[in-house]
Design goal:
Length: about 280
């Protein structure tokens, strides 16, 4: 993918274990900075489908005084490793490393911004870290890891049918049995390790009540908050989470066949800079 030529966005490789991580740093336009944000990208092909939109939002944050770091997690994008080597624990180590780097560059309150499964990863990391996080920004967060993995495996079922693969007619349960008996499984051109799948399976974001303020952005084709999101939001509020749930009109850009933008989401998220 050709990267946008922007002198204000600094590409670099961050030394890590194992290998290195590709990063893009958006320096804040103001001194002192108003805040710092670490972006946590989504899973597999959703990362590629949403990279441009995340870049646009990072630029909008930077223009309003926030330092933003985008990091390709281990096995993803331009970072070291193959996707089949990725592990949830390594990804959380990547976030800790990125937070440390960002804190050294931007002397301002730190926050996390995650999309889809990246939002669940951000929630999991936030539940364990001792770092003081000023806020969490969640774009269309995934809560049930097992349900998400089932949805991901269905991509393999659809691909088998379209290609007249003799495996066509299999079920998600069959693919799970295949994964149980192997070290990894291939879905949509991505090899997923059984260890990574098990980690995702065991996560329930509903049980990870964040300590700091949360801004949750949920896309809805019609006005109003979807019932499932409203229910989860109430559970968090009952648990004492300082939550703002924003319903934004738009289609699922992370699953689109084309690279698309979501202007309403950009506008609503950028408005947080006035908070």
């Amino acid at each position: 993918m050709k990267r946008d030529a922007d002198p204000a966005a600094l590409p670099f490789f961050l030394p890590a274990r194992p290998g290195q991580r590709f990063c893009l740093f958006h320096a804040p336009s103001t001194r002192p900075a108003r805040g710092a944000l670490l972006y946590v990208h989504p899973f597999a092909e959703e990362m590629n489908k949403t990279r441009h939109l995340a870049y646009l939002q990072a630029r909008a944050f930077a223009a309003r005084g926030y330092g933003v770091l985008q990091i390709d997690l281990y096995g993803c994008g331009d970072s070291s490793g193959d996707f089949g080597e990725a592990r949830w624990a390594i990804w959380k180590e990547d976030l800790a490393l990125a937070c440390d780097w960002l804190a050294q560059q931007v002397a301002a309150p730190l926050g996390l911004w995650g999309l889809r499964l990246g939002a669940l990863l951000a929630l999991d990391f936030a539940s364990e870290t001792a770092l003081p996080l000023e806020r969490l920004i969640l774009w269309q967060p995934v809560f049930k890891g097992r349900a998400y993995l089932n949805q991901f495996l269905r991509l393999r079922l659809a691909s088998d049918i379209l290609s007249d693969d003799p495996r066509a007619g299999s079920t998600t349960a069959a693919l799970r049995r295949e994964l149980d008996g192997a070290t990894r499984i291939e879905v949509g051109g991505y090899e997923v390790a059984a260890e990574l799948a098990a980690a995702i399976d065991g996560l329930d974001g509903a049980l990870l009540a964040p300590r700091g303020p949360v801004h949750w952005f949920e896309l809805a084709p019609a006005a109003g908050v979807p019932p499932a999101a409203a229910h989860q939001a109430q559970l968090w509020r009952d648990a004492g989470v300082a939550l703002c749930l924003h319903a934004v009109p738009g289609a699922p850009f992370w699953a689109s066949a084309e690279i698309v933008e979501c202007p309403a989401l950009l506008t609503a998220t950028t408005a947080l800079c006035a908070c």
